[in-house]
Amino acid sequence: MPRFGRLVGLDSVTSEESGPDSGAGGPESGTGFAGEATTTVPSSRGAPGAPTIDCDRFVPRGVLGRGGSSVVIRALDRDIQREVAIKILAPEFAEGTPEISRFGEEARIMGQLEHPNIVPVYEFGVDRRGQRFLCMRLIEGRTLEEALYRLGDSRLDPDRLAEFLQVFVKTCDAASFAHSRGIIHRDLKPTNVMISDFGQVYVLDWGIARLVRSAVTLADVDPPGALVGTACYMAPEQIKGLHEDLDERTDVFALGGTLYQILTGQPPLTPEIVRAIWMRRPPPQITPPERLAPEGRVPPELSRIALRALSFDPAARHPSVLELKREVETFQRGSWDLPRSSLPAGTVIITEGDPGRAAYVILKGHCSAYRIEGGAEVQLRVMGPGDVFGETAVISDKPRTANVKALTDVVLLVVTRDLLSSSLGLNSWMGAFVKTLADRFREADERLRAYESKRT
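Below the sequence we write its predicted structure tokens.
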């Protein structure tokens, strides 16, 4: 059985005794911290023994937050007259300790990540006291978790949800860029995403990020079996402490957890799920987002995307963050907020004469439209990916005029009449216009059928 180490990171630290049940705490409490998602604390400037930096260049302006092995302070850079965030490693860590190795690794990693959605590092140094420090951009704003918490269920209002999806896409951009440099974050979650006061999005806290090709021996900082990260967002392979098995799909899982929290307001993994994975037992399934949010508020396609990213089997997840991002962007374009239906070859999807309750878009496979004449099937056309069928009966609210069956296994998007009514406004002047066109197409089809019948 693997042992538990500290849950390493600035905003979530547990002892070995706390075990795998550690979940996310409440939202971050304040704004105006930066670089790292720490627990915000009152300014301690001038207090006896307050964390500070002993360097002529920087003037300490108070503590922004504390973690298990470091503290983040606000400071003025005298040389260029700007305020910065400085992360200082606690002085009790001696040379050769894992914390020293990890802090240096964090500096090397962040130095390679020049990206609009990653907090830039200005300097890595040692002050007169021998304290190692990282000087970073100071970000004024709030974490994604805090923003979600403040809005409550209204986060799912269309305009708000659209804004959060944009934040999510930018988070994916940062993670994807890191992956292109051989870096896995390992602690992606809403508290490590900062939304600045002017709308910029930053991925924070690269303190436990892993550089795949690194001079630092992984076992030196992450002993086999040690739990490193935040349990309620961890992929199973990460919970089990299989550090050598982690790859891009591990971050895909955590991003799926972030999307899940946007939809539900809570992390994806319960203590029961985490405990079962850690104990090598079959875990309970993650609760679908639509069961945790107000009825009808979670778009089915977003739920599907989140649950795919949260697959316990890495092979079932999106193969890359870029692929996850593309699915969310496709949803944002407005064509995928629809249920899907997977049907085997030979399935009759539409029957002539039935009422038109839904139309269909073919995503995969091929279908045949046909009529029964004289007891035989007369094929009208073969349809493939991108083709639409059944729409005329739905819009005109009249019976089907043909049959459709699956020639191969197919995946379909289902467009209900209710959805068309809300999207097109079938009771508005635009709806009347569309309905008239559908009726005329239907009349033309009936005249053609009558003409062909006379000829035969």
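The chain has two domains: 16-332, 340-455.
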